[in-house]
Amino acid sequence: MTRLAVVSGGLREPSSTRLLADRLTAGVEAALRERPVEVTMVDLRRHGRAIMDAMLTGFPSTDLEAAFDAVAGADGLIAVTPAFNASYSGLFKSFFDVLPEESLTDMPVLIAATGGTDRHSLVLEHAMRPMFSYLHAIISPTGVYAATDDFGAWESGGLAARIDKAAADYVRLLTSCGQRDRRDVFTEGIDAMSRLLNGPDRTGPAPRE
Amino acid sequence: MQFGIFTVGDVTSDPTTGRDPTEHERIIATVAIAQKAEEVGLDVFATGEHHNPPFVPSSPTTLLGFLAGRTERLILSTSTTLITTNDPVKIAEDFSVLQHLAEGRVDIMLGRGNTGPVYPWFGKDIRAAISLTVENYELLRALWDSEVVDWSGKYRTPLQGFTLAPRPLDEVAPFVWHAAIRTPEVAELAAFYGDGFFANHIFWPSSHTERMVALFRERFTHYGHGTPEQAIVGLGGQVFVRPNSQDAVREFRPYFDNAPVYGHGPSLEEFTAQTPLTVGSPQEVIDKTLSFRDYVGDYQRQLFLVDHAGLPLKTVLEQLDLLGEHVIPVLRKEFAVGRPVDVPDAPTHATQVAAARRAETEEAQS
């Protein structure tokens, strides 16, 4: 069983970003050739207020926490954002800003973006790839950028072919990475503290009554 | 079980009047609040430690020393004392003097509780926060537990033949609580030494507190201090109470909506559902507080935050009247129901002195 999380930063309903996310998901499922996949879709629009609340209070609502768990517990992530002002949208960035640390460590990620024209396509390389690198994800070499024009054209080498190519490349990465163990920062903190307290210079206190 | 209040010491404008209290007014109000806590039958008053506006409590032992002279029974504590940036020698001295003045009605809650900039103000390196905590506490313990201390560490000049003066009252150091909001390392530290663990609890979801306390209890046993149920646990809580639930919500909402920490974020209702915040009638406060036991087990100390977000002094004192008359007596009774006999009470100076004397007698006999 491959657990796949999909984060779509689309703001409208219907949304071309969500449409691209769905087509990439279908492409990945097809490339996995009938191996079982469990997909969790996280539509950021639905979590808009909760994301900002988490930013202000430091902890997520119950629904948002479930989305965090789905992402952190997945074997792979497909992340799709609309391009805003030469970058990802603020909502998309905010989600990853409040996602607990280490959630994406060693996570194979397929990046994709949508935009008005193909002049914004470097948003993949100049914004998304560095952010996911910072988060210690393993980013698939082939991303997908879809401009409005792409949704109107079906010539060969067009969007459908790019999606298939990106999905195939990503599945190679995903399958070679295999099942992913979620990192638990909570427990790691304890281990580090325990080593410090029981360190070579310290004999430790006698148990007190 | 002990009940009390803890204050952050924020100077916040009253959103209903736009009036800013002065620092002086806030400090004097804090004294009135602590005295009232004793008058209505609470057990503990604890003050935070902050070194930047809009907070006033930069010198907790000065405030507590003054309160020691103005109160008779109240246990005076901190919430927290910074173990990272305070010199352990000075902490030991300050609390020794305080213990003597207060006839032992003193304990201490240690925490890291710092904003980043506070470290350089006291000559410390924030990158070493955790190892500073470990080293400083080790030294503080040595100062309390040994008459003459020879010590060297990484973050402080060495001590040679140092003796703490005055020695702790009756040679028994204040009981130590280690406090954390979200750092599991602190639970590990408390468990290692077999001290108390105080989960801040407020402003955070109960699921997080549950995990922290469970971890502390498990590690307390791991280090050989007793059963998980015998670990000493304290919790924070946050209440606004009026005889009638609707009045409480109506009156508190503007304070909630504009409060530092959570204002302008989730609604009062969302925040109440997810965190220990209770805004309502005495019965609602009783019900919610009793529910804390469901996820942390039987515990020893419950402190409430009642005086923040710009609430006027008069309102805070009314809160304490309601707590003292209608809430705490019921909580004392209800928390005692079904409490296993081997769950200890929170240590006090008297019980710690008795334990120390017992240990000495046993040692002399063996």
From TrEMBL, chain A:
Keyword Repeat listed: no
PANTHER family recorded: FMN REDUCTASE (NADPH) (PTHR43408)
GO MF annotation list: oxidoreductase activity
Domain NADPH-dependent FMN reductase-like positions: 3-148
Keywords: Flavoprotein, FMN, Oxidoreductase
Protein name, per record: NADPH-dependent FMN reductase
SUPFAM superfamilies: Flavoproteins
Organism for this UniProt entry: Nocardia mangyaensis
UniProt xrefs under InterPro entries: CE1759_FMN_reduct (IPR023932), Flavoprotein-like_sf (IPR029039), FMN_Rdtase-like_dom (IPR005025), NAD(P)H-dep_FMN_reductase (IPR051814)
Automatic annotation (TrEMBL), chain B:
GO molecular function annotation: monooxygenase activity; oxidoreductase activity, acting on paired donors, with incorporation or reduction of molecular oxygen
Segments forming domain Luciferase-like: 1-294
InterPro entries named in the record: Bact_Lucif_Oxidored (IPR050766), LLM_FMN-dep_put (IPR023934), Luciferase-like_dom (IPR011251), Luciferase-like_sf (IPR036661)
Keywords for the protein's UniProt record, in alphabetical order: Monooxygenase, Oxidoreductase
Pfam families named in the record: Bac_luciferase (PF00296)
One cellular component (GO) term of this entry: cytosol
Name the record gives this protein: 5,10-methylene tetrahydromethanopterin reductase
